[in-house]
Amino acid sequence: MANTIKLIIGLGNPTKKHGGDRHNAGFMALDALAKQSDISFEDKSTFDAMVATDDSLLLVKPQTYMNDSGISAQKLFKQYKEMPIVVYDDVDINLGEVKCSFGRGAGGHNGVQSIIDHLGTKDFFRIRIGVRPVHEELKSHILPPDGFQNFLLKPFAPFEAELKEQVIKKAVEIIEALKTETFENVMNQFN
To answer: What is the pLDDT of residues 44-75, one digit of tens each?
Structure first.
């Protein structure tokens, strides 16, 4: 009997301009896993995404821009009949931390809201990568008038590099654990 493939959708914006942005943490995690596993992403226009296969995982980076991520998720669901596992940045979680959850609302994240809207449910597993600044000199950047929206479209500061690597590594560990573990076990282990 063949293993069921797990759809891992990393959220981000597809242009080089946004490659290092906090909002692209989901892409960063999938890129790190692909590099670790020595696999490459290929364009799959039928899914509006770049995809790579790693054992029982289909790694997916939607190419529709963040706010339309649900278009790709819906096409994947129609093909595979599997709810995706979504990996994304969360400004409510401190940089350095990663949280797992299931069946939550979007929490103001437009990419997640697009997936909820296109799938018609919020019942999917999430890997939420913390991007909230912990260094005093950056904390004011998420306050009005600019707010966190503009902050998310900026790269990590050089002095955040170690924490950024830490969260990306933890997100990859969680994805790897999902190959064999249940959602509940993964949440108990990593939250």
So the answer is: 999 999 999 988 899 999 999 999 999 999 99
The answer to whether 56 touches 6, Cβ cutoff 8 Å, is yes
The 10s digit of each residue's pLDDT in 127-139 is: 999 999 998 888 8
The torsion of the CA quartet 79, 122, 84, 162, rounded to 10 degrees, works out to 150
DSSP-derived letter for residue 121 is -
Secondary structure letter of residue 57 according to DSSP: E
Q: What is the pTM of this model?
A: 0.94
> At 52, is the secondary structure helix, strand, or coil?
strand
Exactly one of 18, 23, 135, 141 is catalytic; name it. 23
Helix (H, G, I), strand (E, B) or coil at 63: coil
Rg (CA), the chain: 16
Q: How far apart are CA 27 and CA 136, in angstroms?
A: 27
Note the maximum CA span of the chain: 56
Q: Is residue 141 among the annotated active site residues?
A: no
Residue 59's SS3 state is: strand
* Amino acid (one-letter) located at 190: F
Three-class SS of residue 109? Answer: coil
Tens digits of per-residue pLDDT, 161-177? 999 999 999 999 999 99
- Rounded average pLDDT over 32-41: 96
Identify the residue whose tokens are 């891992």: 8
Read off the DSSP letter of residue 18: G
